[in-house]
Amino acid sequence: MLSSKVSGIVCTLALSSAVTAVKLGDSVIGSASEKQFSQEFPENYNILKFHGGNGPYSERRSYGISRDPPESCAVDQVIMIKRHGERYPSPSMGVDIEDSLAKVYGAGITEWKDDLAFLDDWEYFVPNKCWYNAETYSGPYAGLSDAYQHGTEYRDRYGDLWNDESVVPIFSSGYSRVINTARKFGEGFFGYNYTTNAALNIISESAVMGANSLTPTCDTDNDTSTCDKVPSTMPQFKLAAARLNAQNSGLNLTESDIYNLMAMASFELNARAFSQWVNVFTQDEWVTFGYLNDLYYYYCAGPGDKNMAAVGAVYVNASLSLLNEGPEKAGPIFFNFAHDTDITPIVAALGILLPAEDLPLDRIPFGNPYVATDIVPMGGHLTIERLSCNATAMSSKGTYVRLVLNEAVVPFNKCQSGPGYSCPLADYNSILKKSLPNYLTSCKVPKSYPQFLDFWWNYNTTTRLNYQRGPISCQEAETLH
């Protein structure tokens, strides 16, 4: 036994084969048999990261930067755009799923075996065709509860930006499930005051809205040649089909059926706590499925489409105006709701998460920064924070901008000199104004259409649309109610 005194505190080291502890008074501060931090990262695998844009929300894998504002800063303005919450499949995806299920059940198999043994008791999770398109309300990943919970979390984070008295506009594109997400988020954020202090503004998704839209379109060049080449199968799906066909004689699944059934498993989690279909497929097969979704978003709705940065520039340009005006003039809170394919153009316009080269169609470039589930899972959202910061040893007093994607800070590629890797507002302005394409000229927007985003400054403050009026029609999509 060795003993010594340091500033009146006795430190005793027990030298034996038993656990060695270092004590300060009566508190154990270390143990030779335990590690403070695990050194294992087993496969870095979570199934939610391989559902593409089909499955439940999951936070973005971060770079380790604190989500809270830097100690020297306070958020004085927040601009968010959120995808609708978890939903049932679209009608078109539903047709594909039902076709593959019909092949499964039409095989004449009386006793399911091995990976499909659960089918004796399983039922399709979509009650009937009217539920296609709708947001889910049941299960722990339900879209409506996702939106409400997000609202409560943002009330905790940004509630100080609201004075509990003023009426705050909320902006939603004109699609039923998006509107319902906005409503539930609003209920979560405003609580008992949602009825009186939130004002839902519904913005039509029609192309005639031009630039005054959360869902701008670009019909200049409809060349979809690369998007059309995005594969829906890879060799791993052939192995999956062969395995399931061998386990259950008479089954004749193809690679396309495998894709449909995997997509179904992703959507099933949106409505149920558990999907037995998820376990039918191997991790390698899910990794492949995830990448096929990355390809879709990249080439069909993201930076791989030459027009998408111009489409996203509408939102980015307008948000620059809000940031420059600041909360005193423009207001402190801007909550917006749209679709996944409205967020991916914004990410493209900002120039973040871009791969070094276009994504290959025939293999997976592991380490690819453009991962759909980290960008637009169900309920995915991009938040722009305006920070008011005091001077520090590394930065001066001033206004800074920070991008937060699915609750993880994503530093602006060309500017990270501010607190918490934020960017000075002046530099943020300068960089984007040089890089942003012109939506009007790039997409040849007719002069009869609105030429700029205007609704953030000209909005209604009535509460007439805060709640659904009447029943939702079967498979309701675009609406202004």
Automatic annotation (TrEMBL):
- Give Gene Ontology CC terms: fungal-type cell wall
Gene3D superfamilies named in the record: Phosphoglycerate mutase-like
- Record flagged with keyword Signal: yes
EC numbers: 3.1.3.8
- PROSITE patterns from the xrefs? HIS_ACID_PHOSPHAT_1, HIS_ACID_PHOSPHAT_2
Protein keywords? Disulfide bond, Glycoprotein, Hydrolase, Signal
- Do you know which CDD domains this protein is assigned to? HP_HAP_like
Active site (UniProt): H84, D340
Membrane-spanning residues where? none
Q: Does the keyword Phosphoprotein apply?
A: no
Q: Which residues form the signal peptide?
A: 1-21
Where are the disulfide bridges?
A: C73-C389, C415-C423
> Pfam families this protein is in?
His_Phos_2
Q: Which family does it belong to?
A: Belongs to the histidine acid phosphatase family.
- The protein here is known as 3-phytase
Supply the source organism for this entry.
Penicillium frequentans
What phylogenetic lineage does the species belong to? Eukaryota, Fungi, Dikarya, Ascomycota, Pezizomycotina
